[in-house]
Design a protein that fits this description.
- The complex is a heterodimer of chains A (485) and B (137).
- Chain A is built from 15 helices and eleven strands.
- In chain A, β2, α4 and β3 form a beta-alpha-beta unit.
- Chain B is flat and about 55 Å long.
- The longest helix of chain B has 18 residues.
- Chain B has a three-stranded antiparallel beta sheet, with no helix packed on it. Chain B has a two-stranded antiparallel ribbon with strand order 4-5.
- Chain B is α+β, with helices and mostly antiparallel strands and 137 residues long.
- Chain B starts with a strand and ends in a 7-residue tail after the last strand.
- Among the domains of chain B are: 40 residues, no CATH class; 40 residues, Histone, subunit A, CATH 1.10.20.
- The chains are: A alpha/beta (485), B alpha+beta (137).
- Chains A and B meet through α9, α10, α11, α12 and α13 of A and α1 and α2 of B.
């Protein structure tokens, strides 16, 4: 048996029964990373020594029967989540040598569970992008076809889980950055309700949209990681004080009594015909499992979500990224004529082109004379989009859509055309605008390339989404398929 | 067959060029009106506006970047004009999707980072302080 192929729940069971040690499992994953990483390039940093040390510590805990489901399981963390003592680059030259003096809340929680961290995942710079081509270091390659993108911005996290370079990964999702790469790489990815997971220690991109979440090999693993990372945190003022459920309790392979809607606006004209066919059979499967399907749902403001998103997110980004002034940390140009000159040059040479483009776009939308027409207008459209979802959820338990309108595109295909790149998030970004949860699950293939199905729920309905994902998974085997690398 | 005639002129010396566009179609000649600043083709943003935005953001740009951003941002903003079609009369803006109000915590002492830890990533420092360039010269 190839140990690196194990899921969390499979490995955890073997560890608990002491038929496997974390050290053996970690060594197997590290060996596999050495074999395939040259082709996939999912990592910015591989933390081999740390992983082996944490594996030994986990084994000691397991021997003392102090077990948690994630104890001793090798994981990869997106490189915009602060890890104390391990550099956190955000995929940017700006933070190439930044070593955080503290852990993000999610890292504190995972360390308390006995995490084995094998490294930090590659990503689009500051999480801005849909292909991981905007990483300052290297593009990540899709394990299903190395000439194609893994999606983004959590492309390293998704590609690594698909290629078995980590048993699970954390990503972050501002407009689809967990779900779109999960769909492109045939793994499960969940964006929780805004406020469910603490953002403390997540490098800020668009603070009203950002949310950390898991990328895993199946729905059960997704529930296990959710259990570990959710909860109220006084260090994040947007953290929700709601009770914390056990997500594994809702995993039942039956959908009777559920009403699912298919919003027609998500089957757009630019959509690939084969993706639509995959979606139709996936939805038929949900119906077989007992769900009632409403094919006639309409969310008429959906077409405006793209513009609203690409005004709101860059506006918040332009404010958040003003902190990179070359004074407190990060890249800094010292050879300059004045303070202002040093600051301008620091940003000019520290940021890549997509980050600069969004700073410019956000600065425009927030500037005097344009604020009302762009930023305020977008915030009002945001209200309408949220109201539409709320109305739909009055009579439906969840909505089902494709995660992306196409299969993974080729590396280089959209990198010089920002608008085309933005369109690949058209199905995922309305969900961030509304602050609601959504999951992407493996739903089939088109010519050997994965297609993701997105299930969207009302606020705090993660249990419902995981139940649907689990039931679908029990009836299909898409999530078990593995790429040949 | 459709022909376009463009007449370029600068109404005031030193001001940006303007253009007047006429199209010749099946209905004869149609006056498409005046368009501002066509010194590099018709775009939503001028070079000066792009440079002004970069200054507001304290973001240095090369000449090539200025031109490329002018084209790309103009194109993006034109596409976003669709937003103006949405009727938002009496609609309140949403800043945060989950409304929480007055988030306060007790003011209790708690451990914080040591000066050395905070300064460890500083590009330039002196005697436990961040070192910056002269602000007033």
């Amino acid at each position: 048996m190839d140990l690196f192929r194990l899921t969390i729940h499979e490995a955890s069971e073997l560890l608990r029964r002491q038929e496997l040690s974390s050290l053996e499992l970690t060594q197997a994953v590290l060996d596999h990373i050495r074999e395939v990483e040259g082709k996939v390039r999912a990592f910015v940093t591989i933390t081999e020594d740390l992983a082996l040390q944490q594996a030994k510590a986990a084994d000691q805990r397991i021997r003392k029967r102090e077990t948690a489901p994630l104890a001793g399981i090798p994981a990869l963390i997106k490189d915009n989540i602060c890890t104390k003592g391990v550099r956190t680059t955000c995929g940017s030259r700006m933070l190439e040598n930044f070593i955080p003096p503290y852990d993000a809340t999610v890292m504190e929680k995972l360390k308390a569970c006995g995490i084995v961290m094998v490294g930090k995942a590659n990503m689009d710079e500051f999480a801005m992008g849909s292909s991981t081509e905007h990483s300052a270091f290297s593009p990540t390659h899709n394990p299903w076809d190395l000439s194609r993108v893994p999606g983004g911005s959590s492309g390293g996290s998704a590609a690594a889980v698909a290629a078995d370079e980590a048993v699970y990964a954390l990503g972050s999702d501002t407009g689809g950055s967990i779900r779109q790469p999960a769909g492109f790489c045939n793994v499960v990815g969940l964006k929780p309700t805004y406020g469910k997971v603490s953002r403390y220690g997540l490098v800020a991109f668009a603070s009203s949209l950002d949310q950390i979440g898991p990328l895993t090999k199946d729905a059960t693993d997704c529930a296990l990681v959710m259990n570990a990372i959710i909860g109220y945190d006084s260090r994040d003022s947007t953290s929700l004080p709601h009770p914390v459920p056990d997500y594994t309790r809702v995993l039942i392979p039956d959908l009777h009594g559920l009403r699912l809607g298919v919003p027609q606006e998500y089957f757009v004209s630019g959509m690939q015909k084969e993706v639509e066919e995959v979606m139709n059979s996936a939805i038929a499967k949900l119906e077989e499992l007992g769900a009632k399907i409403d094919w006639g749902v309409s969310l008429p403001h959906t077409p405006y979500a793209l513009a609203a998103y690409y005004i709101i997110a860059p506006s918040e980004a332009s404010a958040n990224l003003a902190r990179y002034d070359g004074v407190k940390y990060g890249f800094s140009v010292q050879d300059a004529e004045s303070m202002w000159d040093a600051m301008e040059k620091t940003k000019q040479f520290g940021f890549g082109s997509e980050v600069k483009r969004r700073i410019m776009l956000g600065t425009y939308a927030l500037s005097a004379g344009y604020y009302d027409a762009y930023y305020l207008k977008a915030q009002k459209v945001r209200t309408l989009i949220r109201q539409e979802f709320d109305q739909a959820f009055e009579r439906l338990d969840a909505l089902v859509t494709p995660t992306s309108p196409t299969v993974p595109f080729r590396i280089g295909e959209k990198v010089d055309d920002p608008l085309q790149m933005y369109l690949s998030d058209v199905c995922t970004l309305p969900i961030n605008i509304a602050g609601i949860p959504a999951i992407s699950l493996p739903a089939g293939f088109v010519d050997g390339l994965p297609v993701g199905m997105q299930v969207i729920g009302k606020p705090l309905s993660e249990e419902m989404l995981l139940r649907i994902a689990f039931a679908y998974e029990q009836a299909t085997d898409w999530h078990k398929r593995k790429p040949e690398i | 067959m459709l022909y376009s005639f463009i007449i370029l002129y600068s109404p005031i010396i030193g001001k940006p060029w303007r253009e007047r566009v006429f199209t010749l179609g099946e209905q004869g000649v149609k006056d498409e009106g005046l368009h501002d600043d066509v010194s590099g083709g018709e775009m939503k943003l001028s070079r000066e506006e792009v440079k002004h935005l970069a200054l507001l953001a304290r973001l240095g740009l090369s000449e090539a970047e200025t031109e490329r951003f002018r084209e790309q941002l103009s194109n993006i903003l034109e596409n976003f004009e669709t937003l103006q079609q949405v009727d938002t009369t009496d609609v309140e803006p949403t800043a945060h999707s989950i409304a929480l109000e007055n988030v306060l915590r007790d003011d209790e002492p708690a451990p914080s980072l040591l000066a050395g830890e905070v300064l460890a990533n500083a590009p330039s420092q002196e005697e436990d302080h961040f070192k910056v360039r002269a602000v007033l010269e």
